[in-house]
């Protein structure tokens, strides 16, 4: 009940903002500049915001008579799902969405949500940088009105809990764990034995604080930037997923760009990717230090094998219901062979 009132209020806010956009747009017409709106759900000190600000500066400087880029952080335009819908219809032009929620718009995105898909960070980065692998997936939402223009590193996802250290999948039994709103994540939690509680990112802190959930799973930034480490005291490096964030753009907007504009935007997307990845490395290091020293979070390094084993059936399940993903899956495996890393090495990497 309270939830539906909150939702109505949120949508009212979004509608008001859009009305302001419209009025702003009309005034903008006088100067003939097109306002480009980008939404995301992170804070202004997060690598995503820093990268999008670099994009904003680049486009504004290089197409000064045509465009003004505006970046809206912190779910100002709604949750990621709301923002993807706004991007679909062209109410806004771009947003950052986790790969996890994109699988509800195109099943092909399921592949990058698979637990233990990548053998190492290097394999993950090479896969995501290879247009032969990502291209078919990034274009798979064309009919839905948008496409992916670049990917962003969101590190590895691990479990963290209020007060029960997770050393093995058995420790997850009976715990309500928040997962992203994706069928693959719900299935993953089921295989690991926990009780999946899907919800939007913005609701997680309150749910943890009020004890509605016992824990969540995310990268280290969630502890500090989103305050989850104020309430959750155990963070376990089981490293179950490397789920990228994706910058998506409205298809009609992108199609309507002239050749010159397209070149500037394309360079801008490369800047987003480069800056975000550079910032990410520093941000994670800083988050770990802060979580340890200021929030007194204990970092645990469990044996990953039982987690890997429990999740294994999901790979075949996803591939058998979407056989079109098989070639992509094989390409990923060959990157895994080229850039292997044992479970132990992964734990050591995490500790460093
Ligand atoms: C990460 C990711 C976000 C996502 C969030 C979540 O922070 O970068 O895009 O929304 O996880 O768990 O929902």
Could you characterize what this model shows?
Helices cover 50% and strands 16% of the residues. It has helices spanning 2-31, 47-62, 80-89, 99-102, 121-129, 131-138, 183-192, 204-209, 221-224, 251-255, 259-293, 305-311, 313-321, 326-338, 343-351; strands spanning 34-39, 67-72, 94-98, 146-152, 157-161, 176-179, 195-198, 215-218, 234-241, 245-250, 298-300. The model is unreliable at 1-5 and 25-29 (pLDDT under 50). α2 (47-62) packs antiparallel against α11. It has 15 helices and 11 strands. The strands form 2 sheets. Strands 7-6-8-5-9-11 form a 6-stranded mixed sheet. The chain has a 5-stranded mixed sheet with strand order 2-1-3-10-4, with helices on both faces. It starts with a helix and ends with a helix. With 352 residues, it is of the alpha/beta class. β1 (34-39), α2 and β2 (67-72) form a beta-alpha-beta unit. The structure holds alpha-D-glucopyranuronic acid (GCU). Alpha-D-glucopyranuronic acid is lined by residues 41, 80, 98, 154, 180, 201, 218, 222, 245.
Structural key phrases:
352 residues; alpha/beta; five-stranded mixed sheet; 11 strands; binds alpha-D-glucopyranuronic acid
């Amino acid at each position: 009940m309270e939830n539906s009132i909150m939702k109505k209020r949120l949508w009212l806010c979004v509608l008001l903002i859009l009305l302001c956009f419209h009025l702003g747009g009309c005034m903008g017409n006088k100067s003939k500049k097109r306002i480009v709106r980008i939404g995301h759900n992170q804070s202004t000190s997060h690598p995503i915001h820093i990268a999008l600000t670099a994009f904003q500066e680049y486009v504004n400087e290089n197409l000064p008579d045509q465009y003004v880029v505006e970046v809206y952080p912190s779910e100002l335009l709604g949750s990621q799902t709301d923002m993807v819908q706004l991007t679909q219809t062209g109410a806004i032009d771009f947003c950052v969405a986790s790969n996890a929620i994109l699988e509800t718009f195109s099943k092909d995105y399921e592949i990058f949500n698979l637990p233990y898909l990548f053998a190492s960070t290097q394999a993950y980065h090479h896969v995501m940088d290879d247009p032969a692998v990502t291209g078919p997936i990034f274009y798979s939402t064309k009919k839905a009105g948008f496409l992916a223009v670049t990917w962003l590193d969101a590190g590895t996802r691990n479990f963290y809990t209020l007060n029960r250290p997770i050393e093995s999948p058995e420790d997850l039994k009976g715990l309500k764990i928040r997962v992203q709103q994706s069928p693959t994540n719900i299935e993953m939690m089921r295989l690991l034995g926990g009780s999946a509680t899907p919800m939007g990112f913005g609701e997680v802190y309150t749910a943890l604080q009020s004890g509605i959930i016992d824990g969540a799973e995310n990268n280290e930034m969630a502890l500090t930037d989103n305050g989850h480490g104020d309430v959750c005291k155990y963070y376990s490096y089981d490293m179950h997923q490397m789920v990228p964030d994706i910058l998506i753009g409205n298809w009609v907007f992108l199609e309507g760009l002239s050749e010159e504009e397209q070149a500037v935007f394309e360079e801008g997307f490369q800047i987003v990717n480069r800056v975000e990845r550079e910032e990410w490395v520093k941000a994670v290091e800083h988050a770990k230090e802060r979580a340890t020293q200021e929030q007194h979070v204990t970092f645990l390094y469990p044996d990953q094998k039982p987690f890997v084993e429990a999740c294994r059936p999901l790979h075949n399940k996803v591939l058998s219901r979407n056989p079109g993903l098989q070639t992509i899956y094989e390409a990923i495996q060959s990157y895994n062979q080229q850039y292997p890393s044992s479970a132990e090495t992964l734990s050591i990497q995490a500790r460093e």
